[in-house]
Specification:
Blueprint lengths: L1 E10 L6 E10 L2 E12 L5 H26 L7 E5 L2 H7 L11 H11 L5 E5 L6 H15 L1
Parallel strand pairs: 1-4, 4-5
Antiparallel strand pairs: 1-2, 2-3
């Protein structure tokens, strides 16, 4: 099973600041992949944009990873749980909340398109305290951009 942790940030103001995400992928306690990135600055940025950009970064990575994993494991489909402290992202991706507009909306639509064929991906809300590693990565991306 893969456990994915994503977090988005928008600093110093939300919306309108510098947006970034942190992404961590683990199997058990083993780190498989991690990254962080600034996704942009200005009026088109928000923490929700950053959350969805983090999810899209995972999905882009996962598409190639899944092909390789499935080939090595006789097409065994591995369960994936995406953990986020964003109730918006989790509830929208679980189809409990509707998405109709907002700065993040184009990224939401892309995530839905990318995941429509993956029945093995679950989305789980976790408290912010349980997502500190991904949060630290998101903050690190912004700190590195400033230097």
């Amino acid at each position: 099973m893969l456990n994915v942790y994503i977090d988005g940030s928008c600093q110093p103001v939300n919306p309108g600041g510098t947006a970034s995400y942190g992404l961590i992928v683990k199997r058990g306690e083993s780190l498989i992949f991690q990254t962080c990135k600034v996704v942009g600055s200005g009026k088109e940025m928000s923490n929700n944009v950053a959350e969805y950009k983090g999810l899209l970064a995972f999905l882009s990575w996962y598409i190639s990873y899944a092909k390789e994993y499935d080939n090595k494991n006789d097409n065994e489909i591995e369960q994936v749980i995406v953990h986020s402290d964003s109730q918006l992202l989790v509830n929208q991706m679980n189809r409990k909340w509707k998405a109709t507009s907002g700065l993040y909306y184009p990224y939401y639509k892309s995530a839905i398109l990318l995941t429509q064929y993956y029945k093995n991906i679950e989305y789980k809300w976790i408290p912010r305290e349980e997502n500190s590693d991904a949060d630290n990565l998101a903050n690190e991306a912004i700190a590195n951009e400033r230097h």
